[in-house]
Amino acid sequence: MNGISIGLLGLGTVGSGVVKIIKNHQDKLMHQVGCPVSIKKILVKDIHKQRAVEVDSSLVTTDPDEVINDADIDVIIEVMGGVEETKEYLLTALKNRKHVVTANKDLMAVYGSELLAVASQNGCDLFYEASVAGGIPILRGLADGLSSDRITKMMGIVNGTTNFILTKMSQQGLAYEDVLKEAQELGYAESDPTADVEGLDAARKMAILSTLGFSMNIDLDDVKVKGISSITEEDLAYGKQFGYCMKLIGIAERDGEKVEVSVQPTLLAKSHPLASVQDEYNAVYVYGEAVGETMFYGPGAGSMPTATAVVSDVVGVMKNMRLGVNGKSAVTPQYEKKLKSADEIFSKYFMRIHVKDQVGVFANITSIFSDHHVSFEKILQLPLEEAGMAEIVVVTHKAALSDYENILVQLRDLEPVHTIKSSYRVEGSVKS
Ligand code: NAP
Ligand code: HSE
């Protein structure tokens, strides 16, 4: 090979990092792949925008055809984001027999299987390591390092923005809006941060992770999602008092042939390995039947960490080129999708309720739990400042989700219950 030509779609946070790594690590890239790597064309929206990295102005274009239809370009790096239009660009590129590397989880969570099929039909690689947990090589970890094992559980802190927000809120008592603004300024958050804070970004990553880890086509719609925007200081304080910390956790669990995948704010026992993951850092805890517990940890967002994963994928493409095996590494899912129903999902739960402080109310509430065979690990009642009102806080033992949901319905209908202030899944045990 005389050299590899890259077409870059996007020159924002990640795209700038890609340009820097290709320039600064050229020696290492050449050593691994045996030829120079250069960027031939870069697609942007606004040609006049100030860039975080210096690039020759002749490389930059606003015409996608100059990139995806250029016969001299071997690999397309897609770091522009977006779904429908971007999918069309990548389909064209693959049909033009260009290999594709993308960081786009929005796209891969929805159209991943279709794009992978087109890639393989055209003898092309489609790699997407940076789409989950930024700089952490978790997809290669699952596809290569753990390929001989049967994965039964994955728990991920896979959104840097929300981990940053929850860390700063609970450790420094900062307000939600202020920390979100800081996460946006630091380049962690998506351009519209709704997807971060409402859990959708993490859900997309969990769909990609569980598809690979369980070898089963898990769609975005299969992932139950709840975000962090309604978490209050009181929830964080009670969590701390009970020995837990609050994290937005993606959980993918397999029992026999059936799986559950969700993303939700979770009170995590402080002894759990994921509890020490702070700020914008990500981690994916993977349990395999043979290997046992493993954890992959690192920066899940940001320009250089994400670009590292992107450029490493390019190295993977080039190694395959030398071996003549492009388009042969993607494995189609082995199992038919079978999702657990609510009576097959078991977890502990935290609930905080405001009730009228009257004789018999506590007994009424506890009897609703016992009627559904749910027992308490912890329970607390405190008077509220508002006269005649009390707050009840419980952590349950493991219960079926269906039972827990029925309890919530009955409590909402109970006259002395004023509000169910919050309800969270709980993972791990705290020894008191
Ligand atoms: P970004 O900073 O907003 O950059 C996007 C770039 O793409 C910009 O250069 C923009 O051009 C260009 N672009 C967008 N739409 C375009 C269009 N329709 N036509 C031509 N150019 C277009 O985004 P980013 O943070 O780098 O993220 C890029 C991708 O990586 C996304 O899929 C994101 O989810 C993913 N990702 C990001 C991170 C992270 O930490 N930021 C981590 C992992 C994955 P202009 O500059 O001219 O506006
Ligand atoms: N907005 C994402 C995050 C970027 O906060 O994790 C990385 O995918």
Strand proportion, as a percent range, falls in: 25-35%
Largest sheet: 11 strands, mixed
Helix proportion range: 25-40%
Give the CATH level 1 class of the largest domain: Alpha Beta
Number of DSSP E strands: 17
CATH topology call of the largest domain: Dihydrodipicolinate Reductase, domain 2
The CATH architecture of the largest domain comes to: 2-Layer Sandwich
Q: In whole angstroms, how far apart are the ends?
A: 64 Å
Give average pLDDT, whole number. 95
The hetero compounds bound to this protein are: NADP nicotinamide-adenine-dinucleotide phosphate, L-homoserine
Number of helices: 14
What is the gyration radius calculated from CA atoms? Answer: 24 Å
- What is the number of independent domains? 3
Query: Which structural category do the helix and sheet elements fall into?
Result: alpha/beta
Q: Would you identify the CATH H-level superfamily of the largest domain?
A: Dihydrodipicolinate Reductase, domain 2
Envelope shape: elongated
Question: Could you describe the 3D structure shown?
Answer:
This protein is α/β, with parallel strands linked by helices. The protein folds into three domains: 4-132 and 303-323, 3-Layer(aba) Sandwich (Rossmann fold); 138-299, Dihydrodipicolinate Reductase, domain 2; 342-427, ACT domain (Alpha-Beta Plaits), CATH 3.30.70. It is 37% helix and 26% strand. It has helices at 13-24, 26-33, 65-68, 84-95, 105-121, 138-145, 160-172, 176-185, 194-197, 200-214, 233-242, 303-323, 361-371, 401-413, and strands at residues 4-9, 37-43, 60-61, 75-78, 99-102, 126-127, 151-157, 224-225, 244-255, 258-269, 281-288, 292-299, 346-356, 376-383, 389-396, 399-400, 417-427. The strands form two sheets. Strands 7, 8, 9, 10, 11, 12, 13, 14, 15, 16 and 17 form an eleven-stranded mixed β-sheet that branches. Strand 11 (281-288) and strand 12 (292-299) form a beta hairpin. Helix 1 (13-24) crosses helix 12, helix 4 runs parallel beside helix 5 (105-121) and helix 5 runs parallel beside helix 10. The longest helix has 21 residues, at 303-323. The structure holds NADP nicotinamide-adenine-dinucleotide phosphate and L-homoserine. L-homoserine binds at residues 134, 159-161, 188-190, 196, 201, 300-301. NADP(+) binds at residues 9-16. Pathway: Amino-acid biosynthesis; L-methionine biosynthesis via de novo pathway; L-homoserine from L-aspartate: step 3/3; Amino-acid biosynthesis; L-threonine biosynthesis; L-threonine from L-aspartate: step 3/5. NADPH binds at residue 105.
